[in-house]
Amino acid sequence: MSVIQVDHISKSFGTTHAVQDISFSLHAGEIIGLLGPNGAGKTTTIRMILDILKPDKGNIAVLGGEMNEEKKNLIGYLPEERGLYQDITLEKCLGYLASIKGMQKEQIGVRLEELLQRFNLAEYRNKKVKALSKGMQQKAQLISTFIHKPKLVIVDEPFSALDPVNTKVVKELLFEERAAGTAIMMSTHQMNQAEEMCERIILINKGRILLNGVLEEVRRQFASNDLIVRTSQDIPADIPGVTSVSKFNHHIRLTVEEGLDANSVLGELIRRGIEIEHFSIATPTLNEIFISAIEEASREK
Amino acid sequence: MNKTLRVFWFEYVRRVRTKGFIFAVISMPLLLVLGIGLALVSARMQTNPLPIGFIDQSGFFADAEIPSNGTASIVPLVDIMRFEDMDAGRASLENRHIQALFIIPAEYPEDNQIEAIALDKPGENAYSRMRNFMRSHILTSTDEGIAQRIRRGNDITVIAFDGSRSANMRDWFVVLFPFLVGLLFIIVINISGGYLMQSVVDEKENRTMEMIVTSVSPEALMAGKILGNLSVGLTQLLIWLFFAAAGVFSMQFFFGFGYAPVIMPVHLVLLFGIIIPGFVLVAALMTLVGVTAASLREAQQVSILFTLPMVAPYWFAGAVLQNPNHPLAVLMSMFPLTAVITMPLRTAITDVPNWQIAVTAGMMVSAAIIALRLAARIFRMSMLNYGKRTTLKSIFMPERSGR
Fold first, then answer.
1. Inter-chain CB proximity B209 and A83 less than 8 Å
2. Which residues in A lie closer than 8 A to residue B14 (C-beta atoms)?
3. What is the ipTM, given to two decimal places?
4. What angle do CA B41, B45, B49 make, to 5 degrees?
5. pLDDT in tens, A122-156
6. Which among B219, B233, B169 has a CA at the least distance from the CA of B378?
């Protein structure tokens, strides 16, 4: 069963078409990346899924049907615009946010303790939120997203303001939740994070979906004929089938003719006595796919 | 506990536990007690515990009974000593056995003049004690009923210019009721409205709103906020009333003065038909201002548009009391923002026709419901407009707002 099923939704603000005919689904135990440049329509899409905004057209089913008050208790949301109550203690703030997710006092106490320990915030529980650093507040907000063990989590830039150690903690938490069957939608500009965490990506630009699919399939779709080689020696330019040789970041990129077998190039390099440290078929990074797809869409327009 | 109640409790506890609230609640009665205490100390300092003496040269007080010290009072009573001749009186004064010597001359029955001799300025209690002693003796020759009426003073009945209504000045609660209601209304709505507006603006400014509305519906959130912040104002009011009641009780118990208020049926009609809907109306308007404004300062400036009409009836209070059925008074008593103060004012001084009270109550309830619905709608539209104000165009052309 889809946790989120979005069918042909559109949304306009005056003459601005924020979202146009978008459809996708998200299943339990899956992490999906919602990617796109600023103003692409990601936040509007998320807000429609969360019933903050109503779509002008199309349907959205969340957890098997229309959104209602009970379902809100099963959703965790980390918005892009972060915010916590500044003038109360961390414990009171998180306790309140958990209580309006339908948790009882006893449940809150146990779960809050567990998450505060995990995020190294236990000693700050009685500090006012405004006394915490930006990173700590970010962690606190993540706690409020997960405290009620939601079935659907939507996180917008979950790693911003986090140091590498805490980024790792958050990743582990997201993976754990996924393993437990939670459906996770992650909106981010950090392509390396999306690449590492998402099985599927949805790339939106100007309110329309440009790409929607399993990450590996998308990569294949954007794959080039390039080979990546790492060696301490120079590679001659006269290797049969190789059209260009360029160096980048301690690696050498070989652009080859279409249909050429990579093994033949590898064999030729070994035959010529070049010591190979690394040899791979170049797969585009998500960042490259992102830029390429956006540029292609702009050209088409 | 449903979510409205959770929001209510959070808003309530969050406010009443602040130092500012506790200080505001305690400071008022403390200042009052301090003021009364200072007045009592000042009164005590102006008294002198030494007895007073008198010489009756007129013979008018020859058989006057010298009163005992009587019961305890804020200002202590002093002994009165009779002297038969001037030398004895002066000697007592010089030896500081008495603080003042009053001489009642032979001509007193004709000219009502007496003299006082003292080494230092006598205490205020010396004069009042002598005055009361003389008045009591003069009244002994008068019929007891008449004497009591003279001691009690006049019963004044205030009658409306059009003769439609009258009120005895001793029923002070009836006369003071509209003023008290108005004053309390202004206090509570200022406290609650301020908190309410701040609460809404805060959530927009600190960006918690987006997360909150994914947990609670905008309607439940708004209802919880209104209930919570109104309760803060009411709590403050109840605590003050408790102190006031304790003060009145203490006055009655220790000093024997003070009156018990009288609640009339019309007061209940005013409470449920006009004052409570009035609270809801203003609370909804404050929410509306809070959610549409870009900042707290802007919200406070705009809220004057509602608070000014609320206090406007005080500017016209004299005219309303003089002619409570003047068209302006009737109009103000029926207009929702001015009705809360004007209608109780009119009911205190005239018999307001039942239809007018019914129409006003109907209008108040309707206005409160409309304001709540409008506030809920605009709340939903504007809650995520961080740092922006909501324009009238976007309110009345919702398709452009996108919500």
1. yes
2. 85, 87-88
3. 0.78
4. 120
5. 999 999 999 999 889 989 999 999 999 999 999 99
6. B219
The verdict on a CB contact (< 8 Å) between A75 and B214 is yes
User: Which DSSP string corresponds to chain A?
Assistant: -EEEEEEEEEEEETTEEEEEEEEEEEETT-EEEEE--TTSSHHHHHHHHTTSS--SEEEEEETTBS--HHHHTTEEEE-SS----TTSBHHHHHHHHHHTTT--HHHHHHHHHHHHHHTT-GGGTTSBGGGS-HHHHHHHHHHHHHTT--SEEEEESTTTT--HHHHHHHHHHHHHHHHTT-EEEEE-S-HHHHHHH-SEEEEEETTEEEEEEEHHHHHHHT--SEEEEE-SS---TT-TTEEEEEEETTEEEEEE-TT--HHHHHHHHHHTT---SEEEE----HHHHHHHHHHHHHHH-
B27 touches chain A (CB under 8 A): no
Q: How far is B27 from B33, CA to CA, in rounded Å?
A: 10
Contact B257, B251 (CB under 8 A): yes
Instruction: Tell me the average pLDDT of chain B.
Output: 81
Question: In angstroms, rounded to a whole number, what is the distance separating the alpha carbons of residues B299 and B293?
Answer: 5
- B-contacting residues of A 182-241, CB under 8 Å? none
N-term to C-term CA, chain B? 29
